[in-house]
Amino acid sequence: MNKLKIIISIGIASLGIIASSCKIQSPFSSLDKTIKVVKDSVKVQNPIKKIWENDPHLIALIDSVLKSNIAYQIEYQQIQIAKEQFVMSAGLLKPNSSIQFNPSLRKFGKYTMDGVGNYDTQFSPNISSQMKIPENLPDFPLGLQTHWEVDIWGKLSAKKKAQAIKYMSSEEGYNWLKTQLIAKTAIYYGELVALDRELSILKSNIEIQRKAVELVKIQKEAGVVNEMAVLQLEAQLENSRAQIGSLQTEIIGVENEIRLLLNNRKFNIERTLLPIDTDFSKEYRNIHLDYLSQRPDVKQAQLNLEAQILDKKVAELALKPSLILSNFIGIQGFQPQYLFQLPASFSYNLLGNISKPLINRSLLKAEIRMAESKIKAYELQYIQTLNNAFLEWDTNIKGLDLMNEQIKHKSKEVELNFNAIQTVGELFRTNNANYLEILTSQQNTLKSELELLEIYKKRWINSVQLYKILGGNN
């Protein structure tokens, strides 16, 4: 009986050790802690507010894109996959336990050690009739079976940490796609607003040109000008009217690009004329290079490198011996009615297994070399991502200042051209200017207005690109 108590104590103790490693907790608790540490370490607030915050139509459009875009939804599923992969890696640190009932039937050969032994026990005076072993031997084991690889070298912990970092990397990929979608939507919206404004400018100039044609016709009837003046001004008017169809075609094309992002062929895109000539340059005056480290693609490249370093460590530790503990504790008998006759039916099995790879070491070493090559590739990718971020920032921040200077001069040109139209109109009525001067002033005014609008559009795109370059609002 004392011996039985010792055996039971050993079994319970081994289960206790395994159970302690199986403490129930949230599978993401350690991951959440890791993420919090990483995020807290880079808490640098981006001073740039959304440059379109005063336009409710654009805000609503961006929200619709983020809810409907297929690529964005696919990327979200990639995050869920990475999260479950982390759960799987965390599970490797814990024992694999299951309740097992494995009934079987065996018959040993007559001329085998087991066959002779079982036959001989039939004549032993030390066993009861219930303990006699039948020739066809049933077996009914019922109990808890546990396998546990002890993380003696930290291989499983490294694998778990690598998966946690890969999960964070997938989150940054998701954030980067979000930033790109927001920027792309805002750029398309700005192009639409610019096209609407261009259409409005063209229609206004058509009205000016129409009045000029009427005036020239009156002058022709009065004998001041000839038919050539009327024909040239009418040709200019028809040319402007023809441009309306071209602009409307461009508008349809940009609208459909937005509908493609929305995955909605019939979405009505509401917009205003508000944002296209808004100056955002003040928002970017105090930006410094530290903000580039917050870009999701930069953080993703860094996390990919860190995860790959851990993957290499896992590959190296795979060459070391591994320790696996196996444990079965339960009840067993060769007839079902004996299973619950405790303590007689109590059964246990404790096994430790230490193994070290020999045959497949070349395969494991190849995995190490492959991991080293991946590390070098991720290092280069990280450097390239940083360089790209800096050069994008440098190009756009300098371009913003240059475009503001352009706008100042071009706005003055537009103002002068409008004054010129009024002046030449008065001069023409008093026969102090000819129709060619009217034609030239109208052409110059339309040209300068459209050029100013193009600069406004480029500045809008530049500002949106800066929003993206600095990582958006992630």
From TrEMBL:
Q: InterPro entries under this entry?
A: MdtP/NodT-like, OMP_efflux
Is Coiled coil a UniProt keyword of this protein?
A: yes
Alphabetical list of Pfam families matching this protein = OEP (PF02321)
Molecular function (GO) terms listed? Answer: efflux transmembrane transporter activity
Keywords per UniProt: Coiled coil
Residues annotated as coiled-coil are 230-257
Q: Which PROSITE patterns does this entry report, sorted A to Z?
A: PROKAR_LIPOPROTEIN (PS51257)
The family classification in the record reads: Belongs to the outer membrane factor (OMF) (TC 1.B.17) family.
The protein here is known as TolC family protein
| Source organism of this protein record | Sandaracinomonas limnophila
